Amino acid sequence: DAGVTQSPTHLIKTRGQQVTLRCSPKSGHDTVSWYQQALGQRPQFIFQYYEEEERQRGNFPDRFSGHQFPNYSSELNVNALLLGDSALYLCASSFTGLGGYFGPGTRLTVL
Amino acid sequence: ELKVEQNPLFLSMQEGKNYTIYCNYSTTSDRLYWYRQDPGKSLESLFVLLSNGAVKQEGRLMASLDTKARLSTLHITAAVHDLSATYFCAVVLDLLNNDMRFGAGTRLTVKP
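^ inputs. structure came back:
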């Protein structure tokens, strides 16, 4: 069982650019949640995808968008990157409310 | 809005000592997770507590949940250096979708 996977591992972008991060949930899981964790801070909930739709959203601007595919994998897109978007982006998967397994994360650096 | 408070935020312990980390939350929830995070790494699931009075133990760590008091504890017994990490509690807002909100984390350092 592969567990939750994320790609890429690290990414460096410049302000104003756009980025796409990817997540594959644990086998058998159908729900993907995305979190942003700035250095030294707690993870902050961005949004959650279930049945290819955004089911819940945290307090993040519309520059943050996502998608879920029929195979339950998910993408997080961030447009018009700001320096403050530099963070570790974590994806968590679950099934019928149970799970909370996190992937290894993507470290995004915005210069 | 749900508030999740952990204390202490920083904890320096001697090896062999015991200590407890506290996680208080402001609204009703029947599910809570404890995670460990090493520097630069992702979150490692330690415990999921599913009901009032739940107690789980793994090695030197034991977690409990009191949903009436809205309190969870993570007890460390006879600390060793390998336990040095940041520990987060995460309270589930919505059981159906496992929507979690995190505490600020406790940075634990265990000294020889």
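The CA atoms of residues 35 and 45 of chain B lie 5 Å apart. The interface with chain A takes residues 33, 35, 40-45, 48, 88, 90, 92, 94-105 of chain B (CB under 8 Å).
thumbs up if we can close this ticket
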